[in-house]
Amino acid sequence: MFFKRFLLEGNALKAIRQGLDEAKDSQALVAALAPLKALPFSIDPDRPLYKFARFMWAVVVLGAIVELYCYLMLWSQHSHHPSWWSWLLVLAAPALVAGIYFYQARSEKIRRLEEDLWNTKLLLDNDITPQPCSKDAITALKGRFPYFYGSDNDTFISLGQGHYQGSQHSFDYQVIIHRWKSDKHFYYCYALALPFGLAKSLTLTTFTPSGGKWPSYDRWQPASQAFNAKIKATCKEELDAARFLKPMVVERWVKLLDEIKDPNLLIEDNGDLLFLTSDKGLLAPERQGSLKDPASLASHYPLEKLAITLDLVHFLMVHNDNNFDTPLPQASQG
């Protein structure tokens, strides 16, 4: 019975994975879950049998330690005749270890599939096309943004391509989920990248990004004390920062602090823009869908903080598309 269930579950997971890889929209992703309807049971990585497998790993390790101890005791007493239970443990251990391994691996496989389903669902629900984290795509990203220099390719969790249509400007953009490893801990960043072209060589920083290469420009301060108290603006040329940080832009950034945690902005020398944050709500809010409850994945999940960020970029474009005709605001070089 266990073997039959294991086999049926494996076939369903394989079919769902294939459907996920081929899904081009939310409807296709939901349709990929059809194999679940044919199963007489639900798929759950936390069901008792999988928890039992994790428990048995500890039992096997403990048994190995006891066996080694007993063997050393026999050796110290010049007795080389293992007891019957020692032989039983030796014969049963391979089968036990193999069974535990397969059930443990299956549990992790279900978890990975649920995470991939959720991440893909979020992108498709928000009209973003998932992109493979291929070597070429990552190399191109590193070429545009030195912040990602030194990152291994497997630290890029998710990529996607979207389009924004605003009242005055439209643009293509890329979303990125990336992680840095430091001191045995992972630090995730959630980013939006696009060709901006209306400013260059400046940063707005509310926290120091982990791991990445962040430009070392001179600090520049607008007249707003509320801005300067929480946001560090730096630039290569004072004129670029003065044109970018108009009073309405400064005010909008102060307001943004109440909407998104730790927003950072980087505009490269070539005008490419990178917005990044530690706020997982931008691209990866807490998972609500699961294979145990397929209906939960049929719901629509808008990324509200991504919408706020896209509107912000459009706001920046509107207030910077006539930079050369706009009087410079008062500011101080710090």
Q: Give the tally of β-strands.
A: 10
Query: How large is the share of residues in beta strands?
Result: 15-25%
Share of helical residues? 40-55%
* Contiguous helical run count: 9
Radius of gyration: 27 Å
Mean pLDDT: 83
Question: Any key phrases for this structure?
Answer:
334 residues, alpha+beta, 2 domains, 9 helices, 10 strands, elongated
Question: Could you characterize the architecture of this molecule?
Answer:
The protein is 44% helix and 19% strand. It is an alpha+beta fold. It has two domains: 2-125, no CATH class; 129-333, no CATH class. The radius of gyration is 27 Å and the shape is elongated. The protein starts with a helix and ends with a strand. Residues 324-330 have low confidence and may be disordered.
Summarize the structure.
The chain is of the alpha+beta class and 334 residues long.
Topology:
Elements: H1 2-22, H2 26-31, H3 48-76, H4 84-125, E1 129-131, H5 135-144, E2 156-165, E3 170-182, E4 185-195, E5 202-205, E6 218-222, H6 225-230, E7 232-235, H7 238-244, H8 247-256, E8 264-267, E9 272-277, H9 304-318, E10 331-333
Antiparallel strand pairs: 1-2, 2-3, 3-4, 4-9, 5-7, 5-8, 6-7, 6-10, 8-9
Helix pairs in contact: 1-4, 3-4
